[in-house]
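Category: protein sequence paired with discrete backbone structure
Discipline: computational structural biology
Format: plain text, a pair of labelled lines
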Amino acid sequence: LDIAFIVEGSDNVGEENFNIVKKFLEKVITGMNVGQEDIHVTVMQYSETVTLEYSFREIQSKESILEKVRSIPYQGGKATNTGNALDYISKHTFTPVNGGRQDVPHLVYMVSSSPSTDVITRPPRSINVIPIGITPNANIQELRKISQPNNPIILHSYNTLIEEAPELVLQSCCSHKLWTEIPELCNKPMDVLFLLDGSSNIGASEFEEMKNFVRAFIESVEISNTSIHVSVLQYARENNLEISWNMPQETEKLLEMVHSIQQREQGPTRLGKAIDFVVQNAMSESHGGRPSASKVAIVIVSGRSEDTMEAAALSARMNRVSLFPIGVGNRYDEEQLRTLTGPSAANRIMKLQNFEDLSTMITLNSEFIKKVCMDPVRECIDEDGNKKKPGDKWTLPDQCHTVTCFPGDYTVLESHQINCERMPKPVCHSNLPAVKIEETCGCRWMCPC
């Protein structure tokens, strides 16, 4: 992570409160893993102008930064030019020439207690801004606008800055790659498949944002034989398995493969067909699916599917595939998202305004990954919600599938459907042709009397 702290130093703040801000910075930076290979920090003060107090180019050691923070002089100034400060950050702070790294998330914490005295333009989406607003004078609406799609941290006085804010900052910032609960939650075999919409209603930049989302996920979890494997399917009129689980499951190789996926821009969106393909083919052992791994499909949906998906969604549930639909924008059909999850798992649905919010959902917050890792609960549970023990076997409501619970609490689904069309017809002694008899789970041939 590259983290920028920018703090207001105008006349409205006053020297006493500014010293509290310095103590807050000290407390937060002390709690961070700062270092050459870890978090990098830059510190700025702003009022009418911006003063760079500590840059990314300087030595990235906690001691050096803390020493500098303690000695920052209070700037003062009649104006609070927040727009100018954010403009400076957009144009200069994270650039390579100023020591910014291009392959890590960029995060800004802005401590402010006054409304802006100039016009604000929000930094690009690649820079995540979390304002820390101190009321009563902070303009909360203004801070909300700056922070989207994140939320500002709102405090009632400068004194609470030291009591409450450091913990909130450390929770929001330092979860990427350092999430403590995620390794444990995801420490089980999980085969995760991403479905990317490659249809013609997706723009080139939107397709790139989907790829960035997959890459952010890969960077944030453990890819290994005892943990997560990732595959990617692009769907539209046809389905293309871009990355299968047979391909090298190593972080760097997966990132390269995702980067090189090209949008195929084929006609209409057919999600039902795509889900069916995932369940019947892409998740099979022949494509690298592990029998003992939970199966998860993360589906990015931005438009209405032109085919029905009830049967495909049911097939996914029967085959123990957990579907996580992410609706992006306002063109998708919410009812179709609910069809995918089924009534009992509607909490898997995520809704986002923009494609840019996909990556942010991972880089800034562990909720989505926690949701994915916690979902395929490693318990054997039948269709009525009853817990089953290893060795238990039960029949699904369609009467054509049985499920067996194995040690380690994973289930295997067996199909008892018979397609008599694929079986040779018997030769009947009566020389009459065999008759096809339809049954609950398929059909069989029978010789007429």
User: Anything to note?
Assistant: The chain is about 30% helix and 25% strand.
